[in-house]
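Problem 12. The chain below contains 125 residues. Write out its predicted structure in token notation.
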Amino acid sequence: MRVRHALLGTLAGAALVVGGLAAPAAQAAGSGAAAVTCGNAYWPHHDYDSGSGTVTKSGSAAVHTGPYGSCTTVGYVSEGARVTYDCYVVNDYGNTWTWVRDANGSSLGWIYDAYLSNGGATSRC
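Solution.
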């Protein structure tokens, strides 16, 4: 379960190191890349994952409206803060992102899995 997801996160992390990006930006329309899908594109979804974890990114992790670094940032979650995982998606770049909720159960948005302990959710949306 977590091993499969951890492998995806490791592969995605390696690709990011090679590419030199923390979270890939969208390419311009018409360049042959798939269009960036922001604005909770995978919503509605259910809480498929019973897991939780903490933010591991130094300082804080951005919360986005979609599973891409170029999607609108709606807030930040501090390093060490506990979040619960609903589910994850794999974006067009092969990177995994998890929909998270705060300690009170309120939906926050998408956080890049490399910034979450345990590599984020283990259940796909």
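Discussion. Helices lie at 2-19. Students who got a different answer should revisit the alignment rule from Section 12.3.
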